[in-house]
Amino acid sequence: MISPKLVEVGRHLNINIITNSEIKTVEGEPGNFTVTLSNHPRYIDPVKCTGCGECAKHCPVTAVNRYNKGLDDRRATFIEYPQAVPLAFGIDTDTCIGCGLCENVCIARAIQYDETERESRVTVGSIILAPGSMGYDPSKLDFWGYGKYANVLTSEEFERILSASGPYFGHLSRPLDREEPKKIAWIQCVGSRDTNRCGNGYCSSVCCMYAIKEAMIAKEHAHGELDCAIFNMDIRSFGKDYEKYYLRAKDKDGVRFLKARIHTITEIPETGDLQVWYIDETGQRQDEIFSMVVLSVGLQIPENVADVARNLGVELNKYRFVETGPFTPVETSRPGIFTCGVFQGPKDIPSSVTEASAAACLAGADLAVSRGMDTPTVQVTEQQDVSGESPRIGVFVCNCGINIGGIVDVPAVQNYSATLPNVVYTDQNLFTCSQDTQDKIKEKIIEHKLNRVVVASCSPKTHEQMFMETLEACGLNRYLFEMANIRNQNSWIHSKTPAIATQKAKDLVRMAVARASTLRPLAEKVISVNKQALVIGGGVAGMNAALGLAKQAFRVFLLEKETELGGLSRKLHHTIEGGDIQAYLKQLVADVRKNELIDVVTGARVTNFSGYKGNFKTDVVAGPANTKLTIEHGVIIVATGANEYIPTEYLYGQDPRVVTQLQLGDRLEEIGVSDLSTVVMIQCVGSRNSTNENCSRICCQNAIKNALIIKKADPAIQVYILYRDIRTYGLMEDYYTEARNLGVIFIRFDETNPPEVKSTPEGLIVSVTDHILRMPLEIQTELLALSAGVTAADTGSLCGIMKFNRNPEGFFIEAHVKLRPVDMPGDGIFLCGTAHAPKLISETIAQAQAAASRATTFLSKSEIKLSAITAKVDTEHCVKCLTCVRSCPFGVPVFNTEKQIIEIDEATCHGCGVCAAICPRRTIQLSFYEDDQLNCKIDALLAGGM
Amino acid sequence: MGSASGKISGSVMVVGAGIAGMQASLDLANSDYYVHLVDKLPTIGGMMARLDKTFPTNDCAM
User: Fold this and answer.
1) Cis ω before B56 (30° cut-off from 0)
2) Is A86's Cβ below 8 Å from some Cβ in B?
3) Helices A349-365 and A841-859, axial angle in degrees (round to 10)
4) N or C, where is chain A less crowded by C-beta within 10 Å?
5) Nearest CB neighbour to B42, from listed A19, A28, A127
6) Residue of B nearest to A6 (CA)
7) Is A5 an 8 Å CB contact of chain B?
């Protein structure tokens, strides 16, 4: 999943990757900082290194493999992992003996032993700190036996054990004897939620979920029955659809969840098994034997990372996370320096990605006047028309150092390729991907009037784009290019049978040449981008998104269906940290109202919608007079919000003493607590049940927030919170601790045995079975607050018009759960706030800023180049069976009832080829992958006499 | 927004090249800012590149 991102970052012309380096000092001010970096030597020049791996192959020194958490070895010359970017080796001088072998074998002459520590200076306008975290080191906590018993591992080590690129190649094995474990225990909250031994009072937010994942994957990998037990205090599956994942593990995969803190682990020396001692829910001491124990270690900011931040004048909290405000989630205490990811606070990948975009929004907004000033401009060479010419193919065969050349007889392959039809030039290169070879290829294209190019080397995944750019640079259409992968799919696999590898290389080249002859130049359509944005929803999310875009100098139309801006936040008073939401909202509305680039349209309803990325058109009816307006815009941000669930449980609506947390918040604000002696709260009302399986994420902190207000106002008031799991993730755990310290009583109940509420004139009687006493309790109270969940806003008619996809709960579906949490599946459409899923106000603000950043990536361009690889319908032979309409994952093919034809819009087509493959009449062709362009490869392969 | 010299840079430095640093860099680079992406390790990717699968879809992290 991350691999394509690595490649994208590595290839981006506007990104300069500086590895082996650390930030030392920052001088200057926002807009104009001078950053001093320490550049540590790598001892191998990443520009010259081709990643061939000869150095590591010859290195005689064994070193601990940091990438696999020390569970296996590597050489002193090393690369972290095969997909690494930059794809360049380095020398670990802690273990290198300086034998010089790597220098002798490096054909690219990249080894530089004499490289020294350097310092460099860079001028930038903004800085984003995203240094991430380390897993907690549990060796200090002796009772878990980490470091003492071989089969006690950290979760980070277990990730590597499960991985196919890990120390045991993905085979589920224990370190002691490589035996497959039969029983594995996960121990939660190691280095988290523990002020007693490690001082990390916070929740690391991700460990419950990764433990569930590791248990599920381990079960998949196991050959027989595998018993997985997760020992926990609370299961915190609070993210979007995370509860469903937990239920799947529990109910379908049979993962056991035990509420217990483990106090001792001892090894059984004869077997290496581990005896785990704990107190079960009935108060009985239990011991159970496991073949392996995984410690779910928390996320921790290393001291040296914290030191760097402090040196820059960035304030950190007591746990070394960056101090940020509830309404300024990615801003540090030093103007111009922003933060995101786990350094901001413990969080999962989607939240990190969201915050990263938010930080980019603010970092860029400050520099909007200088946008494009520092980025390189690409020279566009005019394309020559080769359409009338017969194919003149040049074949370049790569040795890849000795990666290919050491196995495959490259001169033989080159000679063979010269005999193939339409081939007029052949060559072989030591490294076809090197910069000097690109110049050579350009020279040969011109000299020999080549109009098709074949490179026989490695994977198109990593190198095709680069070679296509080489073609483009000398006026040849980029689609007149074909690759034969004679390394990854040949020399690496058949390294022990060189003759066969050479034959296969010839076959692959013959196929590539055949296809090259059929290639046609393709034009990439260019569409203009309307630089206006439409934001739907005028709550905290929509307003922040609008401001984010306006700061980048784009015009925004902000639609709100009510007559007033603010949405649900108009009903909120304070954040759990004490942030004044009404004061914040007042300022936010004022900022939006006075911003000249933002047009606020209230009382608005969307009536019609058309267009595609960069060019949308939306009709709106607005205001009391139903004024009609048509807005043309390049992007859309959906921020339609959510509501508090209206309970039907626990006498809500029948007895006025039963309220929701929002209503309790109002009451505390308006009349205070003086008339109260007891308050009971019930969690998970309208969440985590058969109608709504999901957790509503915010209710636990809501209850604790209100409980703290009550207890601080009058400690004598009894507050009971009846809960199933307390989910105060991240730094909010401190408030849970504080509530317990202030005497709030937490009583856990089971989903199958929920509390009961009776109405009597003296008060409400709440009955619940106490989980520690294991006895029924009756609590008389004058106020019962229900932690009602979050329900999606009614967006049915909007979705009917704009064709947005929602999940069964009515929340909008993002393009990718992990890596594109702010994008909607349609290009140019983004999503933020509670329209996406339940979230806190700080998380809503971050996602809104993120949506503005994502939209800016579109709006900052005047035009968008569309991929030339799109599907086309031969309408004359099409029988209108609608198979393509039903099959397209993006809903692109449509039946035009007027013209009676199937239409595929090339602006919205993703070029996936599903329709072309499935069309029973073969009337759909995917350009660059047309039937003849694929069939000819098969013909060429078979022509070799296979 | 102004600085004493009156000169506003069009570049941003991102410190840390894990998934967060990479996403911030890509957004800025795609919005026509120049990005210096700094990492102390010899390769980018951070912690996510060290995971096997990811929740809640069990997709491969790499």
Assistant:
1) yes
2) yes
3) 60
4) C
5) A19
6) B45
7) yes
| Distance of residue A385 Cα from the nearest chain B Cα, in angstroms | 31
Contact A357 B48 (CB under 8 A): no
Q: Which residues of A touch B19 (CB under 8 A)?
A: 2, 5, 341, 349, 352-353, 356, 819
- Provide, for chain B, the percentages of residues in helix, strand and coil under a 3-state DSSP scheme, each rounded to the nearest 5: 25, 25, 50
Contact A245 B51 (CB under 8 A): no
As assigned by CATH, the class of the A393-518 domain is: alpha beta
Which residues is A778 bridged to in the sheet?
A767
**Residues A599, A605, A609: CA angle, nearest 5 degrees:** 90
Give yes or no for a contact between A528 and A863, defined as CB atoms under 8 angstroms apart: yes
Select from B53, B12, B10, B30 the least CA-distant residue to A2: B53
Contact A860 B30 (CB under 8 A): yes
DSSP-derived pairing of the beta strands A718-723 and A337-339: unpaired
Domain with CATH 3.30.70.20 in chain A: 871-926
Domain with CATH 3.50.50.60 in chain A: 134-300, 528-641+793-864, 644-789
Preferred mutation among B3, B38, B41, B62 to probe A, highest tally of A CBs within 10 A: B38
Q: Which of A124, A160, A217 sits opposite B13 (nearest CB)?
A: A124
Q: Which of B3, B22, B31 would best serve as a mutation to test chain A binding (most A beta carbons within 10 A)?
A: B31
Candidates A1, A14, A359; nearest CB to B24: A359
Give the CATH number of domain A644-789.
3.50.50.60
Q: Pull the structure tokens for residue A286.
A: 């239990």
The residue in chain A having the minimum alpha-carbon distance to the alpha carbon of residue B22 is A9
Distance from B12 to chain A by nearest Cα, in Å?
Answer: 5
Q: Chunked in runs of 10, what are the mean pLDDT values of chain A (946 residues)?
A: 87 95 96 98 92 91 93 94 88 93 94 96 98 94 93 97 91 95 97 91 98 96 95 97 97 96 93 95 92 97 96 97 98 98 98 98 96 90 89 95 90 97 95 84 95 94 86 94 95 93 97 96 92 98 98 97 96 97 98 98 96 94 95 98 97 97 96 95 97 96 98 97 98 98 96 95 95 90 97 94 93 94 93 98 98 97 90 95 92 93 90 94 96 96 80
Q: Check: CB of residue A919 under 8 Å from CB of residue A875.
A: no
- Shortest CA gap B10–chain A (Å): 5
Q: Which residue has the tokens 């690391």?
A: A204
Domain with CATH 3.40.50 in chain A: 393-518
CATH number assigned to the domain with residue range A871-926, chosen from the 4 options 3.40.50.2300, 2.60.120.10, 3.30.70.20, 3.30.1370.10: 3.30.70.20
Residue B3 has pLDDT above 70, yes or no: no
pTM metric for this prediction: 0.91
Q: Looking at beta carbons, which residues of chain A come within 8 Å of B38? A: 18, 21-23, 37
Q: Name the pLDDT band for B1 (thresholds 50, 70, 90).
A: very low
Question: Cβ B19–A340 below 8 Å, yes or no?
Answer: no
Q: Distance (Å) from the C-alpha of residue A367 to the closest C-alpha of chain B?
A: 6
Domain A134-300 = CATH 3.50.50.60:
yes
Q: How far apart are the C-alpha atoms of A42 and A96, rounded to whole Å? A: 12
**CATH architecture for residues A528-641+793-864:** 3-Layer(bba) Sandwich (3.50)
